[in-house]
Backbone:
């Protein structure tokens, strides 16, 4: 049996507010197989975004470990984590988080600046990623010239342009109307099915969660299989 | 290219703020440059000094005379090449407001001592052969529209009476820091007239200008000269021309210190303004920096981007200041010629402008760059919602 892509073991995380310690995640243990499409659901404050951030290597753990592709990311330094993220993780945010002064093409090209690709190769990759999300005709548009759905598709192109193993998506449909949300979810499903990308998605939206193979619910920092 | 474009676009994202910052840096560095030029103008005499020239004056004070008879004894000191008597005349042309420096000199030796005063052989000959002749600087001639052959009458303030003289020569400075606003006339004219008008004041000079063969022996020769007149009625103080000029500058030390302080305060103020601009820019884009960090851009890359933006604005302002200062100083030079005969922007001032512009760019970005590189991604996303 293949080793899971992501192994989370006894993960605990809490925040401090003054003298007060607020536990967010308590002794979470679970695995995510390569090619999985996992949805994390749960009420606000349940810790699902924190868990996603830990998996993506942008937040630290208090206890436990997260091993991704055999690498225990909790042991990596800040600079090692930055390199690891650039090679292995694609990010999709609720509010797209595109750089407003750059065009769609430039936004997608941005992560490729950290690779050794030539300028021409970077451009070709970015154009291909935009084509994959159906935005070949919007390459020179700035984010404020695009609709919310189009901006999220640019963000998805940016997430896949480096061909990462994992795509993490934090409320990817949270800021979209129903039609755009359905388009985005269809796109994520296609990335999972056609390209074999492992997707971990946090969502409030049960309809969006239906696109996933597996849904897990976080409640008060504890994980359970969603009903 | 994309990274450079991103830096450029971010630097000018708030155009008005960026332009105001650039203009602020330019104004501050121009003001700094002008103040430095004023300081340089004050020190022009010092800079124009020759290491091969000494000045002997009365040890009590510059206003006390020395006997002309000292000249022969000074000339006999080993290492002394030329000795020329001279003195501040302090004459006024028509009105006090027409101030310009005027001196009496022993012309023959004076020209040998001051080769930086360039004059044609014909004019020099005409000046030397006329006891009532004067030689004036080019700028002084321009100021009063004086020409060769014009008669100028100075009213004496130290030496009473009217002192008519004929302009026989106009000199040019061989170097940019040569004062071209001075009038010199013959010591013999002064002395012979004083013999008639006030015989007790005849045979006296203000100072001796001394040419020495070896500049490295200046201290030793100075000591030898002063030793000659120790315990006499008029003891002497001999120093290098540079030290002599610095003595004049030292009289205005408080003003010079104030100007120096203001010039640095101006830099400090613009540093604060530029730092505020960069801090605001970084704070507004904290989310974007968090995104870049998420994508894998490390702390040094983010700090470098912010530093590049800061340098772009600061150096644009610096370039503007460096372009504006020379013509502005030229305008000042015309307006202030009476007070600052030597007023030009020195290469050192230009270099200091560039150095301070660079320093403003680097220091303004230092704290915001540190904050941006230190920010934790999850915290930044939580803060921006």
Residues:
């Amino acid at each position: 049996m293949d080793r899971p892509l992501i192994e989370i073991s006894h993960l605990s995380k809490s925040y401090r507010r003054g003298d007060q310690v607020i536990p967010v995640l308590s002794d979470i243990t679970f695995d995510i197989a390569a090619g999985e499409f996992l949805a994390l659901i749960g009420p606000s404050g349940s810790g699902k975004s924190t868990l996603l951030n830990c998996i993506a290597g942008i937040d630290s753990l208090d206890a436990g470990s997260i091993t991704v592709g055999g690498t225990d990311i909790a042991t990596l330094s800040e600079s090692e984590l930055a390199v690891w993220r650039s090679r292995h993780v694609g990010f999709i945010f609720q509010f797209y988080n595109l750089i407003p002064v750059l065009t769609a093409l430039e936004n997608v090209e941005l992560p490729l600046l950290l690779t050794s690709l030539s300028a021409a190769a970077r451009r070709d990759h970015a154009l291909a990623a935009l084509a994959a999300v159906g935005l070949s005709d919007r390459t020179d548009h700035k984010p404020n010239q695009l609709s919310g759905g189009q901006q999220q598709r640019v963000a998805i192109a940016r997430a896949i342009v480096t061909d990462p193993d994992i795509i993490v998506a934090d409320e990817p449909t949270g800021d979209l109307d129903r039609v755009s949300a359905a388009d985005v979810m269809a796109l994520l499903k296609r990335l999972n099915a056609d390209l074999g990308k492992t997707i971990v998605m946090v969502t409030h939206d049960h309809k969006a969660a239906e696109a996933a193979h597996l849904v897990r619910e976080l409640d008060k920092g504890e994980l359970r299989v969603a009903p | 290219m994309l990274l450079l474009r991103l830096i450029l676009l971010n630097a000018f994202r708030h155009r008005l703020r960026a332009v105001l910052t650039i203009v602020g840096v330019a104004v501050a560095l121009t003001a700094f440059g002008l103040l430095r030029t004023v300081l340089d103008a004050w020190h022009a005499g010092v800079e124009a000094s020759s290491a091969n020239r000494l000045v002997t004056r009365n040890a009590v004070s510059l206003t006390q005379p020395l006997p002309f008879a000292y000249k022969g004894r000074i000339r006999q000191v080993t290492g002394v090449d030329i000795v020329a008597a001279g003195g501040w005349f302090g004459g006024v042309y028509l009105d006090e407001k027409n101030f310009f420096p005027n001196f009496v000199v022993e012309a023959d030796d004076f020209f040998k001592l001051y080769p930086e005063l360039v004059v044609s052989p014909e004019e020099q000959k005409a000046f030397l052969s006329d006891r009532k002749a004067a030689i004036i600087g080019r700028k002084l001639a321009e100021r009063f529209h004086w020409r060769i052959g014009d008669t100028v009458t100075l009213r004496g303030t130290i030496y009473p009476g009217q002192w008519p003289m004929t302009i026989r020569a106009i000199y040019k400075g061989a170097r940019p820091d040569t004062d071209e606003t001075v009038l010199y006339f013959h010591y013999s004219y002064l002395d012979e007239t004083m013999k008639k008008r006030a015989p007790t004041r005849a045979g006296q000079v203000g100072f001796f200008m001394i040419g020495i063969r070896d500049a490295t022996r200046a201290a030793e020769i100075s000591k030898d000269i002063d030793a000659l007149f120790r315990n006499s009625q008029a003891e002497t103080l001999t120093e290098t021309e540079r030290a002599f000029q610095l003595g004049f500058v030292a009289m205005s030390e408080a003003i010079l210190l104030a100007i120096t302080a203001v010039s640095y305060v101006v830099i400090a103020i613009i540093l604060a303004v530029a730092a505020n601009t960069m801090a605001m820019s970084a704070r507004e884009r904290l989310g974007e920096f968090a995104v870049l960090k998420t994508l894998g851009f490390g702390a040094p890359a983010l700090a470098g981007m912010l530093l590049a933006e800061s340098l772009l604005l600061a150096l644009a302002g610096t370039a503007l200041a460096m372009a504006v200062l020379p013509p502005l100083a030229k305008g000042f030079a015309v307006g202030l010629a009476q007070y600052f005969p030597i007023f030009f922007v020195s290469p050192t001032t230009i270099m200091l402008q560039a150095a301070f512009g660079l320093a403003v760019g680097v220091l303004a970005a230092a704290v915001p760059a540190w904050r941006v590189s230190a920010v934790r991604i999850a915290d930044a996303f939580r803060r921006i919602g």
